[in-house]
Each structure stands twice: as structure tokens, then as C-alpha cells.
Design a protein that fits this description.
Blueprint: E1 21-28, H1 35-51, E2 56-58, H2 86-98, E3 101-111, E4 114-122, E5 128-133, E6 139-140, E7 143-144, E8 158-161, E9 164-168, H3 177-184, E10 190-195, E11 198-199, H4 204-226, E12 229-234, E13 236-239, E14 248-251, E15 255-257, E16 263-266, E17 273-280, H5 281-290
Parallel strand pairs: 1-2, 2-3, 9-10, 10-12
Antiparallel strand pairs: 1-17, 3-4, 4-5, 6-7, 8-9, 11-14, 12-15, 13-14, 15-16
């Protein structure tokens, strides 16, 4: 179980015929201090989602632990694991037993001293058929991820599964239209965003509503601009892994949006939940026919997108 598939044909665009309709599921869960208990809890939630009809199921970012990036602590590297590790082994068995696809976030130990914030795509066979490594790494108060994670080097990808092509990005990636666009151009029906986002306790009253609304809006915009479904699976609950951090209140609010930004299912801000929504390829076709953003892209005129900012010559005297 959980073996990394090395057959080149799995990457072929024509390898699998996509299902015209299927059910996507999101697991919104709280996370405790024990990695093993979190994994068993996640496995139970995935099995429950499968029993309720989900065919592809996404878990929250770094779900095997509380969100340890609230401060820099080298001892936290001890909980990292290889892709062929406990997470993919346990969830691989669940995937095979229930015939479902699982987007499984992991704190990946790539080699000595090199770690990634990653997501393994496990097919219904129990095999890992894809791996995404988080590309955009934040460094903000209580989100000190640059200390822990090497930026991803696999690019923005989509993976063939038993339900069809899907893509996954991770948390901070969800704020960048470039990542969503590049992933969407690989042909998935859904962009999954495993997430760990919440409020600093001192900010919630003044900024909390606007922050959560911006988070929801930017992801709905990815759905609209690219004509794809978007599904964000967040954790929920207050986490203070140790006395040295102030803690974070994760705002839940996981949701699934259709290709025109219509929210099909949305979770609460304070409870564990399983969300289900239908993914319908004919809906993608209909939206793209009537709002042909991909058709009208000026791919001949976008070279400047690779600049950090506009080209400047600060040494020149201004007129």
C-alpha cells in the first residue's frame, strides 16, 4: 500500500477516462498533540466520508500534528516522515478498502535536513500516484514556515486518478492566481487546497471577518477565472502546542465552489464536519462555453508575469 507509482503511463493525459460526475468530500477536523491519534482520527473521517458517498476526499494541511509553525523549534523536525511512511500506508489501506481517492497532506522528510510541506495523491488502488510540494512558503508571526519547509520543486501539477484528473495546492498557495492558473492548465476538474489558516487571538475582533472573507473570495475567484471546481479543507479549533506561543484559532469554514464561484457546500467556523458536493464535468463545459476566459487569454502578451515587479531603472534621473 502507499507505493509511489513509477509507471510513466499513469501520467498520460489519456490514461483514464474521467467520470462525468463524482462526489468530492472534505474533512474539517481538529488536531491534537498525538500524531498517531490524529492519523487514526483522519482515517476514520475518510472512511465515514466514503460511506456517505465521497469518491475523492481531502484532509487539512499538516493534519497529523497541531500547527507547530507557530514558533521555530528544531525538535519539530522529528515528526516528519517520508512519502512512503505512516500516513500513506494507513490512508492507502483506507483508499483501497473503500475504493476512494485521498489527498493526504504530509510533513515530508525528503532527506537529511530537507523537509517539505507536501500532499500525496493516493488512488483507489492504495498507491500514491502523485506528489505536490508546497510552492509558496509564508513567514509571518505564528506562521514561521520558512524555518521548516524547503520550497517545492515539482511545479504545479495535476494527477490522473480513478475519478479523473485532479490537482492540489496547499494553503498559502491559495492566495496566488499564478499557481491556480498553472495547475488549472494541466486539466484537472478540481483544485484542492488543504489548509491550516486561522486568527491570531489579538486580531480576530478587528480583522477576523475581513480576513476570512478575503480567503473565501480569492479562492472563488480561482474557480471563476479558470472554470474549475475549488475545494478548500481547513482545520478547526484553538491550538497552542506549547507555552511559548500565543496560539491560533483556526476558522474552519471549509467549502467547495463550482466553476463560476457558486458555493455548493460550506462548513461552520467551530465544528468538525464532513462536506460533500458533486463534481460535474458538464458544468465545467457549460461555464467555459459561456465565459470563455481560457479562450481569450493573450498568451503572446504575458511575458512580464515572470518579473518580480515592473522593470525599473532607479539610477536614471527622473524628468
Amino acid at each position: 500500500m502507499g507505493r509511489l507509482a513509477n509507471r510513466p503511463e499513469l501520467c498520460s493525459l489519456n490514461q483514464m477516462t474521467p467520470k462525468p460526475k463524482y462526489i468530492a468530500g472534505l474533512v474539517q477536523m481538529s488536531c491534537g498533540l498525538s500524531p498517531d491519534e490524529n492519523l487514526q482520527k483522519a482515517a476514520a473521517r475518510v472512511a465515514e466520508a466514503a460511506q456517505r458517498g465521497a469518491e475523492v476526499i481531502c484532509l487539512p494541511e499538516l493534519f497529523r500534528s497541531q500547527y507547530f509553525c507557530q514558533r521555530e523549534d528544531a525538535a519539530r523536525f522529528d515528526i516528519a516522515e517520508p512519502v512512503r511512511g505512516p500516513t500513506t500506508e494507513v490512508l492507502g489501506r483506507i483508499a483501497q478498502a473503500h475504493g476512494v481517492v485521498i489527498v493526504a497532506p504530509i510533513f515530508e522528510r525528503r532527506t537529511l535536513g530537507v523537509y517539505h510541506n507536501s500532499a500525496a495523491v493516493i488512488d483507489a488502488t492504495g498507491e500514491v500516484v502523485g506528489l505536490y510540494r508546497k510552492m509558496h512558503i509564508p513567514d509571518d508571526p505564528a506562521y514561521y514556515e520558512k524555518f521548516y519547509f524547503t520550497p517545492g520543486d515539482l511545479g504545479f501539477r495535476a494527477f490522473d486518478t480513478s475519478v479523473g484528473r485532479i490537482a492540489t495546492l496547499i494553503c498559502w498557495d491559495q492566495w496566488f492566481p499564478e499557481g491556480a492558473r498553472l495547475a488549472a492548465l494541466e486539466g484537472p476538474s478540481v483544485l484542492f487546497y488543504p489548509t491550516a489558516i486561522g486568527w491570531h487571538p489579538a486580531e480576530k475582533e478587528q480583522f477576523g471577518s475581513a480576513q476570512r472573507d478575503a480567503w473565501r473570495t480569492i479562492q472563488r475567484s480561482h474557480a471563476i477565472a479558470n472554470g474549475v471546481y475549488v475545494a478548500a479543507a481547513n482545520r478547526v479549533g484553538f491550538e497552542k502546542p506549547d507555552g511559548a506561543s500565543a496560539g491560533l484559532e483556526f476558522w474552519g469554514s471549509s467549502f467547495i465552489s463550482d466553476p463560476f464561484g457558486v458555493v455548493l457546500a460550506e462548513a461552520s467556523a467551530d465544528r468538525e464536519e464532513i462536506l460533500l458536493a458533486e463534481i460535474d464535468l458538464s458544468r465545467i463545459e457549460d461555464v467555459r462555453r459561456n465565459w470563455p476566459f481560457l479562450r481569450d487569454r493573450r498568451i503572446d502578451a504575458y511575458a512580464g508575469i515572470t518579473n518580480r515587479f515592473r522593470n525599473e531603472e532607479p539610477w536614471r534621473k527622473k524628468e
